[in-house]
Protein 1
Amino acid sequence: QVQLVESGGGLVQAGGSLRLSCAASGRTFSPYAMGWFRQAPGKEREFVGALTWSSGRTFYAGFVKGRFTLSRDNARKTGYLQMNSLKPEDTAVYYCAALLELRVGLRDDEYDYWGQGTQVTVSS
């Protein structure tokens, strides 16, 4: 069983930065990928980006446009989402998720474990 615990959300002004963390519990953590999603009020959850755990390869949703960066620390079993140049439209609850097996990883129903979510609010 894997548990994911997120941290790092908060309130930031437009143009600011936040770094979200997603720490995994358990003796070992070697998923195929860690994904990040977000859900704004009244909207469906959407894909933000994903990172393949072994290689560190990343891919992002189009709206990221170079503002967000995914990384991971294998020893700490922790993934990170660095968000820069934040905009009010980035306001949402952000979730990390673990994908245990090889899949495309763009849809939330592909993921096996989820964090509890962390609120990010960007003021204008």
Note: The mean pLDDT is 95.
Protein 2
Amino acid sequence: QVQLVESGGGSVQAGGSLRLSCAASERLSCMGWFRAAPGKAREAVAQISTFDSTTTHLDSVKGRFTISQDFSKNTLFLQMNSLKPEDTAMYYCAAARSRSGWQCLLAREADFTDWGQGTQVTVFS
């Protein structure tokens, strides 16, 4: 079973930055970051096709968040800049092993079968 371990969450003032990391136990073709805020449905924040590094981001985070990877270390990142209070949520790393390339960028939450335990991000004003 794939193991995904997130780190890097914390509390930050609005306008600040955080960098989340996700260490995977093996190389995976499609990975993503999701978030779940209290009272809201979990949503996809960003996805990356690891073999060609193509990405997609949620509209509300475009220009502020960037998903990236260190392919050699099976590690996923989410650089979050200009954080807003509405970004407060539990952030999860996930993998969709059956997806790659453009199919990864179109993958839905149900396609992601492996999940980390989550890391909390709190943005205060």
Note: The radius of gyration is 13 Å.
